[in-house]
Amino acid sequence: MNKFGYLSYLHSLAIKKEKARILRTYISTNQVMSGPFSGLKYPSYVTNGSALLPKLVGSYEAELHQEISELLRNNYSEIIDVGCAEGYYAIGLALIIPDVKVYAFDINPQAQILCEKMAIENNVDSRVYLHGSCKETDLKKIPVRKKALIVSDCEGFELKLFTQAIIADLSECDFLIETHDCYDSRISKTLKDRFQFTHDLTSIYSISDLAKTESYLFHKKAGIPRKYLFNLYSEERIGVSEWIICRSKN
Asked: Which GO-annotated molecular functions does the record name (predicted)?
């Protein structure tokens, strides 16, 4: 390992130690403390592909909190979560929407295990159906009783999954899609072009981890000192993330 690699390793180790200190000293609960999924229980302090502390304190993807509250007025009968990870959205939505059925997809076997454990921990496992990969045919097979919300965070696969044909088939559903232009710069524009005929579109953009330390107040509930705020709120994103909310015109 060269000098720069070693310094990077030491920096990463220091961050991990500080995050562990925050968790050990200030977050003494396994439940999400704030936000739309307040009360959601984590069976263990483990996530899949994302930062733990923002989820526990309730600041994770806070840019979406208002939009989520508005979407939930639709009283969805089904939630379809493509790229569910450990289940933050899948189980969180199952917990707060009575009688909703959740179809959660993730190609990572570890994510499936964690999501199943979270469903059991929150007593919603009878309404959660776990799957691996998600294709157009899988989306078509899901029985929608009234209206479904499709949540997607699938690392660029959204460009291949949400074709013009499947969007037409699911034109009565609403969508919340995190796009990943960091993998393919065409994704956001292409999806907007595809959805514009059947859905009203809203774009939401992430704010930087540094900006969160000045604008977020989630830490006050836990009494976390200002010196820890960057590592508390950091979601470790690559650049600016975009979410596209697609509301059915039907």
From this structure: methyltransferase activity
